[in-house]
Amino acid sequence: MAVRQVTGAWQRIETWLREHAPVSFASLQAGASREEIDRAEGELGVRVPAELKALWGLHRGVHSSVGAAFLQDNAKLMTIAEAIELHRHWREVYDDHLWDRRWIPVCTLGEHSWSSGLYLDAGTGEVWSWDEFANRQVEFESLTSYLEEMADALEVPSLAGPDKPSLVDGALAWGPGSEPA
């Protein structure tokens, strides 16, 4: 069920990007193979939840390019390799209380910074935010709810929170923009 929900929400997002934000759409990488996801699971040392496997199967991340930070809060979907690298980094720097092995980075807030972002707790399924000061809080009950909320906000901007979807030179951005979406 989770796979179907993630796939449905992501297809809504992707359709919107294709039609309205071609620069952001062009940043999407191809989907990962089952073998690539299995290798990632081995390197992370944790079972990757079905929701994230489904998302990675659709797109293994985005290319680092203009318009790639198109998720809510102008977040950038990390590549699988980036997620593994950041997970490894935090595990080396912090003990289990500050970075649990079950926390899988999913996106960074901003295109070129790893100081804050969202991770999926593989133990609970919740999506949490983190920052460079080790502050964390639950943002979404699941990856599915995060993607469904974004898809809803794109299709009906009045459903969005304080930051609304907008277009800036063909890229999706959240907050004030030069062209209303």
From TrEMBL:
Query: What SUPFAM superfamilies does UniProt report for this protein, alphabetically?
Result: SMI1/KNR4-like
Q: One Pfam family of this protein, by short name?
A: SMI1_KNR4
Coiled-coil annotated residue ranges, if any: none
The lineage's top-level taxon is Bacteria
Signal peptide location = none
Q: Which residues form the Knr4/Smi1-like domain?
A: 31-149
Name this protein carries in UniProt: Knr4/Smi1-like domain-containing protein
Origin organism of this chain?
Answer: Streptomyces caatingaensis
